[in-house]
């Protein structure tokens, strides 16, 4: 029995609310159970120096957790004067994951920055950020298409992410914090809507796992991502 009472292959309750901020070109609040992430997209007519003049667009991301997004207050990274290694790793993951679903030629020489701010954390914040980040990206690109600044849709395929793990000896989908903190194996799966893999992060915590178990987690991830992509499409088609 999972702490939440969910079935082994059941996602947490997922909701995606769009248009939650006034100024961003695309925004949403994604809620996966008790993990809540605000995702915004900002359009800029510039690109990083290393691709300037190439005609290619760029998608990048920043990630952060609010001080009371967890059970005890975390110090703001700005007050420490630098970002922690976990933050840097996650925002790079979000950026490269979203770029995998973008035709950067069709996007043109402009940059879209996705900001992911964790309001409340209960496990799976990086996966929720990728999934919600794509929604914010989709909404921002819709503005470019509507204005005629972009003629061909640069978004090739939706991108979503979900966690899976071995909890109490069983493969489970979408770990919440009680499961994540005691799972024997923990994995994050980032995929496209058509089922192509972008990135897989898997590690054992105090135990090992077999190829059979890895395949079971992969099957769970495919099911979870498919459901998340349906939620993304529903949110962006309204």
UniProtKB/TrEMBL annotation:
Phosphate binds at residues 86, 124-126. Keywords: Nucleotidyltransferase, RNA-binding, rRNA processing, Transferase, tRNA processing, tRNA-binding. It comes from the Bacteria. Its EC number is 2.7.7.56. Residues 10-140, 157-224 form the Exoribonuclease phosphorolytic domain. Pfam families: RNase_PH, RNase_PH_C. SUPFAM superfamilies: Ribonuclease PH domain 2-like (SSF55666), Ribosomal protein S5 domain 2-like (SSF54211). CDD domains: RNase_PH_bact (cd11362). Transmembrane segments: none annotated. It catalyses: tRNA(n+1) + phosphate = tRNA(n) + a ribonucleoside 5'-diphosphate. The keyword Cell inner membrane does not apply. The keyword Ribonucleoprotein does not apply. Belongs to the RNase PH family. Homohexameric ring arranged as a trimer of dimers. NCBIfam families: RNasePH. Phosphorolytic 3'-5' exoribonuclease that plays an important role in tRNA 3'-end maturation. Removes nucleotide residues following the 3'-CCA terminus of tRNAs; can also add nucleotides to the ends of RNA molecules by using nucleoside diphosphates as substrates, but this may not be physiologically important. Probably plays a role in initiation of 16S rRNA degradation (leading to ribosome degradation) during starvation. This is Ribonuclease PH. It comes from Roseovarius phycicola. The lineage of its organism: Bacteria, Pseudomonadati, Pseudomonadota, Alphaproteobacteria, Rhodobacterales.
